[in-house]
Amino acid sequence: MKILLDVHAHLIPLREQDLAGLTDVQWLPSGRLMVDGAQLPKRELYEPEALIRWMDSNGVAQAWVSVPPTLYRAALEADDARQWAMALNAGLSRISAAAPQRIAALHHLPVQHPQAAAQVAAHSVAAGQQGFAMPAGDAQRARMLSDPQYEPLWQTLDGAGAFVLLHPHRSCDPRLDSLSLSNLLGGPTETAIAAAHLAMSGVLERHSRIRFCLAHGGGTTAAVGGRLQRGQDTERPGAYLGGEKVRQAMKRFCVDCITHDAASLEFVAGFFGQDRVLFGSDWPFDMGLPKPHEQLSELPAALRQKIFQDNPKAIMTSGMAGTHE
Question: Three-state DSSP class for 320?
Fold first, then answer.
């Protein structure tokens, strides 16, 4: 069965000539990028052609591409973050323009600076952009996506009917420093925190034309959804601010299918709705789905049909604009 859309693939869109004026970024003699002292050695990240070859070999028609988390650079100050995002987005658009039938860009939004993120979004929207990706909150500054400072960003994205992939960055919890738990447990938890803030604060209800998509099956969101609802129903202090209750609000999210367990993915589909699950590969990372047909083979055929074809048809027909019934 052909996979019509991959909403979660990564590329590094920068070339050596794009680095002028950027600080703490350099091109190494190996042909790899070093960002803030961290090397990005994975060869496939630099090669849109490698992504297309993988798509061809796995029957994937189109990929929506964002930058990998190493390029989020949460420590940048506002002006530098804005300049960095603009450079990334110019590169993403260039890659998309070279293969417009196969690759579409998800422009990066520097979530750590709400005003800068709104300015970058407005610039992209003015150029006709509808697809975006952003870190799932700013753990470093403890700024949550329910913060009123993000309201101009949500208004811009809502006006554009934008698709927004929320992808976790690193957790700041030192208990996760060993056993690779910062990635394995911290990332999914960061996603759930972002989802809870967007749903419980009313952002999703107020800006219903934004189609938010949670990476990695929504992280731990589905597992704690009942508890969040119970907190509102029993009037936990501050848990309910009026308007839509959290379980209903969560139905507004899309999620990708990267859970690495068929039973977990069925549970996620039951929580968010089977029509809200989209295919994502996390290409080219090992924690993704490099062999999607094999790795998702245990799913019921009807759910695979929705993930591979029916749900992407709906989202592409809507022009990335989200609606909620």
Answer: coil
The Cα angle at residue 170 between residues 131 and 259, in degrees rounded to 5? 65
Tell me the C-alpha distance between 38 and 24, whole Å.
10
CA-based nearest residue to 167, from 198, 202, 195: 195
Quote the CA–CA distance of 35 and 187 in Å, as a whole number. Answer: 20
**Three-state DSSP state, 101:** coil
226-234 mean pLDDT: 96
Is the pTM higher than 0.85? The answer reads yes
SS3 sequence of 21-87? CCCCEEECCCCCEEECCEEECCHHHHCHHHHHHHHHHHCEEEEEEECCHHHCCCCCCHHHHHHHHHH
For 103-162, write each residue's pLDDT tens digit: 999 999 999 999 999 999 999 999 999 999 999 988 777 789 999 999 999 999 999 999
Per DSSP (E only), the strands in the chain are 3-10, 25-27, 33-35, 38-40, 60-66, 103-105, 107-108, 131-135, 163-167, 211-214, 254-256, 277-278
Phi, psi of 6 (to 5 degrees): -115, 115
pLDDT tens sequence across 158-184: 999 999 999 998 787 889 899 998 889
- What does the pLDDT read at residue 325? 32
Domains of the chain: 3-317 (3.20.20.140)
How far lies 171's CA from each of 23, 66, 90, 103, 182, in Å? 24, 20, 28, 30, 6
Rg (CA), the chain: 19
Helix (H) or strand (E) holding 123: helix 114-126
